[in-house]
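Fold in tokens:
===
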Amino acid sequence: MTSLASSADFPSSLVSLIVEKPDGMTQALLDALPIGVYICDASGRLLQYNRAACGLWGRRPEPGSAGPLFCGSYRLYSLEGVHIPHASCPMAWVLANGRALRDQEIIIERPDGSRIVALVSIEPLRDADGETVGAVNVFRDNSERSRHCLGPGEHDNTQDANQRTETQLDALRLAAIVEWSDDAILAKSLDGTIWSWNRGAERLFGYSAAEAIGQSVTMLIPEDRQDEEEAILSRIRKGLPVEHYETIRQRKDGSLVNISLTVSPIKTADGTIVGASKIARDITERVRANEQQKLLLQEMNHRIKNIIALCSGLVSLSARSANTPEDLARSVQERLLALARAHELILPHTGEADDSAGPATTLYNLIGMIVSPHDHATADAPSRIVIRGVDVPISGRAATSLALLFHEFATNAAKYGALSTTEGVVEISCANDGEQFAIEWRESGGPSAGTGGDGEPGFGDRLARATVQGQLRGELSRLWDSDGLVIRLSVPLERLNS
């Protein structure tokens, strides 16, 4: 004879009737009850349930071996929003321990995604020898508990009822936050088996909840980081905190993702640690931004060092050809201004990528910027500096070298050559044969050859050797014909973009 200890929610005599004679009359009695009732055998198989239980579950499961074990609900969660597998639900606990469980709150999720807080009371069913042969669960919707829904004999305390209602609503809100969070949130047992898997985890790692739950969390860990999981679980088992850290995990498609990981223990009411929750956030964009920032800082450091070295060389070279301190100061200042103008052209590109690897401006723009102080074109006086031929993109490094060269060409022309007279003209021709880029600087209308002071300043020779032959790997030649100075510069095309 099966018996059930007394329960205020469900009389033992009715349970005995249901277990011993599960016929149509018994089902009618069950369906007449306003609260949910279901019965499981010792293995957790669902034997019988009533209409109210179906309403609370949001579905009608198949009883017997074909149906779910321990409970007819779609999913279960703790009030903290942690997914509870059916094998770890309150009914499973009662069947395993043979002890009653009363007035415990748990979150039931229906197939349509809606959730309720259920108040459950479970009594074990025993045979004549006292062995547990099953259990009965009596449960009801406790989500909106308030004064008007208090049952007979319950303490009529409006403040307590309202406070309890708020607590239940908070639990539902927390569960919803977990489920719809952009972050991946999952719970696992102490052996690493995944218990719960929210929508954020589906998006981040590519596995659906059905694919992930029940699997080992190590499926997310790359081969070279497998030791991380055991270290985490070891600390969780000992009750030690796991410091927030950044690591790499593997998606379903095999790709790697940078994540920020937070791990916290899951404890029972008595403080026993039974698992761990993990919150993973995709930090791929932040890692990329940090890498780009480091790259830009390295490039900036490299450029600053180059500029300092270049300025030091300019001072040394200028000192050799200067006659007075004033000459030295003026020439150094002019050359530094030329460099500054060149850097103005390439500055907008420094935030996009590594400038050293691609073009920053064009040759026409650079030449126009450098020679513009010497070209006083007006509506009545056309430009005395003409650029024609093929334009070509140039990189930051090439721009620096060419800026210094054209600054020297224009300065010498203004001092000694075509730009030192009112009728003088400079023609700059550019040509590209596919491998070499040729630039010709031709002056006309200036002083006759040999009357323009030191027509070949020493600084220009030294600058040519340092930039054309060194940095640009090119060749430069000067000659004086009947019209004036002609400078020919030939540079490998690849050097202008490297």
Observations:
- The longest helix spans residues 284-321.
